[in-house]
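Subject: two folds for Thursday's group meeting

Dear M.,

Sorry for the delay on this. The cluster queue was jammed most of the week, so I only got both jobs back this morning. I'm pasting them in the order they finished. Each block is the input sequence followed by the predicted structure tokens. Could you check whether the formatting survives your parser before we put anything on slides? The first protein is the one we discussed after the seminar.
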Amino acid sequence: MDKKIFWGFSLAEVLIAIAIIGIIAAITIPGVITNYNKKILLTQLQKNYKELGESLLILKTENYQKGLYGSILNKKASVSLANSAGKFLTNYYNVTQNCTTDTQPCFADKYADIKTMTDTDFECEGYSVNVSGGAAICIIPASITEEEVADSTGAITKHETKNPAIVYIDVNGQEDPNIGGRDMFTFNIYEDFTIEEIDPASTDPTSLDTERESLYNDNCLTSSIGKGCFSKILNDNWEMNY
């Protein structure tokens, strides 16, 4: 009689294969999920960066002779936050919740840093809103401060300092993870309406990448507001490599 041979796996072999697949999945899936979540948050940051840039372009066009310090994003002594940063946000964004000079409930109460995951209370001394895309934005308007400086002869001169507008943004509002450098970032708006963490006007273009990297190394992983993280993202061509 002809013998029929059936090729297959034994139960033990199947169980071993399943166990190996389970181990590989346990190792790789968390990393895949983390990278996926980072990609989503990065996309939201890029979207908000683009929207802010478009709004600033309109503001720049409207103030082409005055610049940032002649616009509503500059807070003079007699101007309130509502009529500077608040006016910019409510005029140029579709605001879904206006927290005015209160940080909460637009932002989460606390934000953690990447390295230690230690929660830190968050307050912004600017004007806060939630916008239609889901982000929470707080802007501290630009300002000009003057101080008297004495030279070697004792003569007094006035020294003027231009302070950029400061932006805090949580790209998904109060939703988790509420971590600096993940969904929470900070950067500045400079005199030429550039969105950066380092003033391009006072930096040699050839050393800008180096200064960004230094700011990242000194701050990002331990900052609950994501200081230095935006610089790293710009350096790495919009990748979250940290």
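Second protein, same layout:
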Amino acid sequence: MIEFKHVEMQYPNGFKGLKDINVQIEQGEYVAVIGLSGAGKSTFIRCINRMHDITDGELYVNETDVRKLRGAGVRKLRRNIGMIFQSFNLVTRATVLKNVLVSFVPEMPAWRKLLGVFTQEEKRKALTALDQVGILDKAFVRVDQLSGGQQQRVALARTLAQTPGIILADEPVASLDPVTANQVMGDFARINKEMNMTIIMNIHHIDLALEYATRVIGIRAGEIVYDGHAKDVTEEVLNTIYNGQRPIEED
């Protein structure tokens, strides 16, 4: 479970990214976080894995006080929390398999990191992860030969290989065409259901958020203004979240 208790996050310039956030997210939920650009969506999810530090309140992940973690504690937290970005963050000149194997590097001894030596078990897990997202046949293809949707699937497989309990996704389909975006969102939904994996996704595609997520959190100016089932999101709710403004991009 993830629990925010009166969480605030203030940037060094004094801007408050989050204001008095109180929310609980249970294991296995699929949560879409929506709102205008700059509303605090990315800040919200990046506090969960300590990419951003909260400045007030309490934040717990599986009963661990995230704010108190240091060094090895932060690394252990992040091993259980996969992170997927809009930009994929892949080594484009390497093969798909090598990109997935990167997920094991943080836990490897120094000599194996230096030589790039992976165990048979690590290779098996990487290939299994590729199979889970439907691109096992691309294992030995260079990443720069893949489509954008296939590259995002590689990023998802890399995250699955580390067997996290939680996946955070920061605008994972923003750079994809509508058909591919639907396919990738379907991958997230299937993984959420089959593996009981918590998924928290910052997304600006309102239609995709409502179609695939089971829960929606709406953030406006750093505050949660809606938290409920996706099916209960009405035009009135959207007007509240977006302050009467709708995103320019709505494929």
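Two things I noticed about the second structure. The CA atoms of residues 59 and 126 lie 31 Å apart. The two ends are 33 Å apart (CA to CA).

Cheers,
T.
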